[in-house]
Amino acid sequence: MSTLTLENVAFAYEKGRKVLQDLNYSFDAGKVYAIVGRSGAGKTTLLSLLSGLTSPTGGKILREGHDLQAEDRATLRSRHVGIIFQSFNLLPHLNARENVELSIRASGKKQRDVKGRALALLASVGLDTALAERRVLKLSGGEQQRVAIARALSIAPEIILADEPTGNLDLTTQDEIMTIFKRLAHEEGKCVILVSHSPDVARMADEVYELAPLRKK
Ligand SMILES: Nc1ncnc2c1ncn2[C@@H]1O[C@H](COP(=O)(O)OP(=O)(O)O)[C@@H](O)[C@H]1O
Ligand SMILES: [Mg+2]
Predict the structure, then answer these.
(1) How many Å apart are CA 82 and CA 162, to the nearest integer?
(2) Which residues contact 32 (CB under 8 A, 6 or more apart)?
(3) Residue 23, SS3?
(4) Which three-class secondary structure state does DSSP give residue 39?
(5) Is the CB of 213 under 6 A from ligand 1?
């Protein structure tokens, strides 16, 4: 059974103006997926459906065979789905470790050694203790992206969603970030779904879905 399955999914912000239509995708554990499409194609909208933040206006999304809409959203977000937003949504005046700690605490699970766990997560994405103690404001784009990944991982999700994860990064950093996503899928069995307009992201993914813009009727 697939981790996530889309059955004829459609979405419209306003009645009669569909942004997404007839999507039949499936996503499995252990793979990196790229959903590509140009600006305005509906990529961010689709991620918000996959995360359960928004409900489709047509069709169904199934997680492990069960309708995502019937699941408790808070549980989904605190246990199963880790999201990396395009703008990271980190707290800029806190340091990297504190950002990850906040998310560990917010998950509601009882945790011992929250600090140690945050540092281990940051180390796993290539941020050492010195960088972990630096305010987000003073980190590079690539480093902030790593903090956002560590934060998403803090809930030990089966599914990782990322919006334009290589958006403003140079080629080398892009490759490094993609290598992290590939390791999470191939070695840790996560289902990684990236949406992007970048051909490089598509090239490095295991499977690619193309989101064509809908023709205006
Ligand atoms: N909150 C919203 N209300 C109405 N229309 C929206 C909203 N968010 C996005 N859209 C429209 O939906 C379409 C898809 O947007 P989006 O999912 O952000 O595309 P992408 O991420 O591929 O650039 C665009 O035409 C956009 O203007
Ligand atoms: Mg977008």
Answers:
(1) 8
(2) 178, 181, 182, 185, 192, 194, 204, 205, 206, 207
(3) strand
(4) coil
(5) no
Using DSSP bridges, classify how beta strands 4-14 and 17-23 pair: parallel, antiparallel or unpaired. antiparallel
| pLDDT score, position 215 | 62
Q: Is 45 close to ligand 1, i.e. is its CB under 6 Å away?
A: yes
Burial category of 56 from C-beta neighbours within 10 Å (exposed 0-12, middle 13-18, buried 19 and up): buried
> Which atom belonging to ligand 1 lies closest to the Cα atom of 46?
17
pLDDT at position 111: 82
Residue identifier of the C-alpha nearest atom 7 of ligand 1: 13
Note the pTM of the prediction, 2 decimals.
0.95
pLDDT digits (tens, 9 = 90+) for 92-118: 999 999 999 999 998 777 888 999 999
Look-up of token digits 């600090």: 115
pLDDT tens string 59-92: 999 999 999 999 999 899 989 999 999 988 999 9
> Whose atoms come closest to the Cα of 211: which ligand?
1
For 4-90+141-210, give the CATH class.
Answer: alpha beta
Closest of 161, 164, 146, 154 to residue 192, by C-alpha: 161
